[in-house]
């Protein structure tokens, strides 16, 4: 698709901002001139094989949708997870007819006797919904006051409430009536009959060695479902896939656990979940590090706002000592899972993968 670049206003330095209406992306080059193509011109389009038309009426046993990102620890040769992960059952607690990740969903939405509509779930919407949810933010429906385009707050904006937004449809800036975080999926659950999600901590524990699974293992943190139609509660914990061989398409271990010990190394579910969200925010790339208090030797885990805000001074939660990171990057975020991940990799049979989402940063 050819770019359609138009001027959409002034930058803070007085230059002109340009936007591509075809790809819904920035098209401003250096010094405030129009670029030859927008930043999204070479993005790989979503193909038909990566799109699912999902009819909820065909799966009365329950449907669940999650924002899906690459595993935080992956020693397999499986394809990269990215998009919307779908579970669909015809029978309650029965076999999952669908257990796969798609980049886009199209869901028929019954209208009146004369018309039917469709709800679309896009991978970028789902990923940013996951990030907002993990850090405890509820999203709202926001539409551009100029063109009506549904607004998505990404990256930095997915964890900071605000009123002024830049529309991805027309590129113009607009103000909403309330301060919040916009995501087109905020109302999807209600539209599709999603039930209030009761959450319980996973009941099971697991301990194993990586050498028992030559095909490799994958680790994710659990995150709140976008849609959950089952009466069963949603489990919170650490999700594990384990493969007996590289050729195996489906894992022989596929479950969520409260406690996970791998090669004698215990995992912390909150650290895993937080690292998963942090790794999905491009403006934090390289800033999430392993920090150890120089006074008491305690591993430092940044909580709450500090978990998504790079900062210079860190206060030890154990002895209250103030200290700084010794990395080249001054502003950092501490997460002990960075070190746990490295330690696990020394005991793995296969190389540790470093898959990236490849999302573009969006910050103030």
Keywords:
single chain; 364 residues; mainly beta; four-stranded antiparallel β-sheet; 10% helix; globular
Straight-line N-to-C gap: 29 Å
Mean pLDDT across all amino acids: 93
Helix count, DSSP H or I runs of 4 or more residues: 4
Largest sheet: 4 strands, antiparallel
Summary?
It is built from four helices and 29 strands. The relative contact order is 0.13. The mean pLDDT is 93.
Q: Can you characterise this structure?
A:
This protein is mainly beta and 364 residues long. Helix content is 10%, strand content 33%. The protein has helices at residues 123-134, 188-191, 269-278, 337-345, and strands spanning 5-10, 16-20, 25-26, 28-29, 33-34, 51-53, 62-68, 73-74, 83-89, 96-102, 104-110, 116-122, 162-166, 173-180, 199-201, 205-208, 216-221, 227-228, 234-236, 238-243, 253-257, 259-262, 265-266, 288-289, 291-292, 299-300, 313-315, 322-324, 333-334. The strands form eleven sheets. Strands 10-9-7-18 form a four-stranded antiparallel beta sheet. Strands 8-17-20-21 form a four-stranded antiparallel beta sheet. Helix 1 (123-134) crosses helix 3. The mean pLDDT is 93.
């Amino acid at each position: 698709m050819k770019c359609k670049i138009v001027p959409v206003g002034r930058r803070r330095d007085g230059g002109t901002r340009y936007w591509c209406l075809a790809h819904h992306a920035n098209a401003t080059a250096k010094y405030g001139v129009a670029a030859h193509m927008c930043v999204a011109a070479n993005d790989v389009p979503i193909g038909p094989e990566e799109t699912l038309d999902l009819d909820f009426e065909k799966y009365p046993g329950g449907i669940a949708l999650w924002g899906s990102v690459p595993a935080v620890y992956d020693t397999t040769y499986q394809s990269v997870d990215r998009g919307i992960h779908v579970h669909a059952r015809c029978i309650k607690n029965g076999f999952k007819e669908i257990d796969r990740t798609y980049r886009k969903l199209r869901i028929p939405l019954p209208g009146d006797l004369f018309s039917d509509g469709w709800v679309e779930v896009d991978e970028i919407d789902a990923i940013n919904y996951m990030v907002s949810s993990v850090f405890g933010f509820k999203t709202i429906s926001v539409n551009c006051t100029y063109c009506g385009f549904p607004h998505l707050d990404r990256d930095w904006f997915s964890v900071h409430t605000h009123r002024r937004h830049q529309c991805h449809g027309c590129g113009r800036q607009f103000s909403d009536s309330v301060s919040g975080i916009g995501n087109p999926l905020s109302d999807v659950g209600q539209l599709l009959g999603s039930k209030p999600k009761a959450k319980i901590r996973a009941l099971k524990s697991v301990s194993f060695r990586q050498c028992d699974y030559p095909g490799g293992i994958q680790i994710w943190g659990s995150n709140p479902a976008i849609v959950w139609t089952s009466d069963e509660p949603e489990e919170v914990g650490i999700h594990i896939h384990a493969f007996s061989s590289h050729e195996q398409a489906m894992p022989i271990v596929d479950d969520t656990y409260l406690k996970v010990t791998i090669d004698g190394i215990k995992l912390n579910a909150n650290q895993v979940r937080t690292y998963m969200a942090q790794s999905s925010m491009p403006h934090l790339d390289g800033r999430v590090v392993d920090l150890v208090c120089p006074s008491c030797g305690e591993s430092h885990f940044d909580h709450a706002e500090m978990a998504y805000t790079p900062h210079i001074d860190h206060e030890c939660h154990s002895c209250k000592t103030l200290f700084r990171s010794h990395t080249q990057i001054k502003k950092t975020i501490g997460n002990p899972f960075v070190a746990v991940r490295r330690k696990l990799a020394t005991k793995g049979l296969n190389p540790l993968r470093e898959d990236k989402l490849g999302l573009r940063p969006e910050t103030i």
